[in-house]
Design goal:
The chain is built from nine helices and seven strands, in the order H-H-E-H-E-H-E-E-H-E-H-H-H-H-E-E. Helix 5 crosses helix 9. The protein is globular, with a radius of gyration of 17 Å. The chain has a single domain, classed as Rossmann fold. The protein has a seven-stranded mixed β-sheet, with helices on both faces. It is an alpha/beta fold. Bound molecules: S-adenosylmethionine.
Amino acid sequence: MTGTITLPPAEHLQWIGSTGPDQFIRVGRRYRDFLVEDCGLVGEHRFLDIGCGTGRIAIALADVIRPPGAYVGFDVWRGGVDWCRAAITPQRPWFRFEHADIAEAHLNPDGRLAVEEWRFPVADASIDRALALSVFTHLDAPTARHYLRELARSLKPDGIALVTVFLVDDAGAAHLAGWPHGPALLAGDRAPLLDRFGKDLFAAWDPAALDAELAAAGLRAVRREAGDWCGRAPARPDRPHHQDHLYLAAAPR
Ligand SMILES: C[S@@+](CC[C@H](N)C(=O)[O-])C[C@H]1O[C@@H](n2cnc3c(N)ncnc32)[C@H](O)[C@@H]1O
């Protein structure tokens, strides 16, 4: 059962900030390559997609992951989860999508759960590879903190997670100063999780504060790679990416 998967409707692409089908496919494939080539993702792995949206990564991995491997994605946005369940799971039954029914003012206002009550829908130490693409850039501090702990709980001892973030070092700070919200974002001496704005959510991290959060969560960064969001030259010109990349593993217990 490995039929073709259709693309989500245009309004779903807009919802996740994609400019259209070509970009949706291109970004999905680029992250498939990061996962396979940089993180060693193979078909038999158990994969967790944190904030799976409308299936951009699931579609890109549809012909990579296969039983006994499995994909689990979750999102607080019910529309994306419902679409993925209807369009992807019937074609790939080993791809599962869960709705995180967290009360979230903009994305899930009627949600039943406080963030701390949401448990990632996977067993302890069961995940080989995980991704959070353009998700931590939208989370407030308590949510991000809880998600880092849940990630540590979910990863196998040799598991790896690719998490994209905005890390505000000096180059980032100089860049942000020119943004309409930049100075406000930098207020509070680059607080651990800098800030977020209304519906247009944006969260960025002070690198040292992030290290402290990772350690407290039981995670360690095995590699970091700066993105080009603040005007830096890409670390690898053949592999540009916008947000900064963190490659995380569970810290030894
Ligand atoms: C820019 S989109 C990226 C979606 C997907 N990762 C991708 O790259 O196609 C951000 C996603 O984060 C989701 N999100 C925001 N807050 C969340 C939360 N607390 N838990 C799970 N997902 C969340 C949004 O609903 C949205 O689907």
